[in-house]
Amino acid sequence: MTLYNSRMFFSWWRQRRRQKLLAEPFPVWWVPHLERNVGHYPRLTPPEQARLRDLTRILIAEKLWLARGGLLRVTEEMMVTIAAQAALLLLGADRGYFPRVKQVVVFPTEFRTPVAGDDWEDDFLSDIPHAGQAVDRGPVLLAWDEVLQEGRDPQAGFNVVVHEFAHQLDFVDGLALGTPPLGRRDLETRWKYVLAVAFADHRRAIREQHEPTFFTPPAAESEAEFFADATEAFYCRPRDLKALYPAIYELLAAYYRVDPLAWWGDTAADAVDHPNCIPI
Ligand SMILES: [Zn+2]
Questions:
Q1: If you measure from the C-alpha of residue 17 to the centroid of ligand 1, how many angstroms do you get, rounded to a whole number?
Q2: What is the residue extent of each domain of the chain?
Q3: How far is residue 176's CA from residue 77's CA, in Å, rounded to a whole number?
Q4: pTM for the full predicted model
Q5: Which ranges of 103-183 does DSSP label H, i.e. alpha helix?
Q6: Cα of 8 to ligand 1 centre, how many Å?
Q7: Which of 19, 82, 147, 176 is buried most deeply by CB count within 10 Å?
């Protein structure tokens, strides 16, 4: 079999396996995990909920789930909670199932270093404690306590799963510049401009120690961090993001092809006062 043929066969086989998986009923005992731990889930429309359940099942089946840092095993609750939050990024657009992520590594709490001998480069990992980390062509590492807390309370404004999987989408073009492939040249050009202006504005605010800033201090480190932070804001603070940075909201809505503001309706917190933000 040629390389082309074997790829075709593998793709057909994988497609068939997915169809078989989705033909089975969704495990009913997973639903309470979605309802309790994934704050977005009850707010989605029924078709979105159905798609999220399908995406969740495929991500659980196709990733290798590893427990580290003293965690005995990755439970079904952990897998459902993590996979469903990652699936939020895939809800509107068909861009596969994070094909470059083979493993999801779960720690009980913040972690410093991975267990030696795993198949990712230790050089990529820092000594600073992390709640999450995304490695290009490698795993996503997550601290379960943070995942659970933020998953249950999306309106607190942060989501480590969304953040790390947004990095993985950004890695897809091999550049990690905060500019994932948007599929349209006009969108990509506009995104580069909007990102550059907002990123420079945020960097300046952090440098001059303005308080408060809308984006987090780590978002000032690089365009890639800014993109992941903006994605978190898009999913968890849509009203504020739209009010303060309408162009960013619009571009992220075009990329992810969802409108998170519709999920929160009138219950989203009113835009808070961020005097240092310059709407663009
Ligand atoms: Zn990051």
A1: 33
A2: 13-171, 185-267
A3: 31
A4: 0.88
A5: 144-152, 160-171
A6: 34
A7: 82
